[in-house]
## 1
Amino acid sequence: MPVFPKHFSFALTAFISVLFVACGSGKVQEKTAAVKKDSVLLVKTPIVIGTDSVEEDFRKRIVKVPLGDINGDGTPDTATIYPPRFIRPSDQMVGCLHDSCYCRIRFSCNLPDIYPVIGIGETMGPVGDLNHDGFVELAFVPEWMTSVWHLLSVYGIKNGKWILMGTGDINLNKLWEDPDFLIHRVVRVDDRHFKIISDSLSSESDSLLQTSKTFTFN
């Protein structure tokens, strides 16, 4: 049996060790690549939960709201509320597609859209021509997955565009009790002012209080 010098045995051992590590590294890299590939496939898989797809659910939640004549042309007008799309239609708590929880309001007359209006849906209605400019102001209360405390927003037309005129805090339990809720909460004061009547909790108890804030027409 041949006897190799010590330095040759050391070199041979080192070569075998490098070869083993290289082969092992190849396996690790191959496994990592497979994991990355699987991850990409998971991301590309379309999410369809239940019987409705994202688009089917979106179309079902589009709502038309009769407003009366809001631009003074003698023709009754309608608003169409386009809601956000949900990632999972059967579980709204997962969130909105692209983190965009906003509605678009489109009108049957020649008025521009209102966008973005925050919320997954809207309770909306006319509150009268508060500033006597020939256009009816609109009030919105957004719908959400949770909470009964929401924001009431009043929009009006200025220079051909919708502007936010004022906001207040609303408890939805009161909204559901009163079908004329929006009109009762947005009140014209005089030629220059209107007020929004808001809800708040008493600091001494859990009872609801009402406070008003006055806004000036822009």
Note: The first helix runs from residue 6 to 44.
## 2
Amino acid sequence: MSMEFKVSNLIYGYILLIALAVCVSVSHFVLPLTTPHPIWNYLVVGLLLFVVFSSSWFKKNLILKLTNKPVLIINEDFVFDIASNRKYDWDDIKEIYGENSSIYIVLYQPEKYKQKPSNGLERWNAKIDKNPSFTINTGFVSARINTLLEVLDEYSIKAAK
């Protein structure tokens, strides 16, 4: 038996933020003010960067929400984070702990789980971060982090038997 967690309804608020960012950015360039305040320019650039850098992660979660598929599967054999497409076997997990809205997974052999960077931003992050952490972002998971940690603890005990 496994536990499946779906994407929460918070994603709809995120859609509104992205729509607002796009509208503000477009209106700034289509209808420029005669003397725009410099802070306005920084806001527009920040909103555009927000949209660009969150698009692939957001797209995965939105598709999972619209198709009503789980974003996280936990069972006696593995923990599968579908949003990041990572499946962690219980035999490889040394420790799991939560902090803020993330679950951190410490592995015995982290090199086994390293994924090849798919774009320039990921390649840049891989060069900078020599000790990558394996995390599950629980921001859009439809359960509280304490509940997720309890479920993970239960299944880690079952997997050890």
Note: The mean pLDDT is 79.
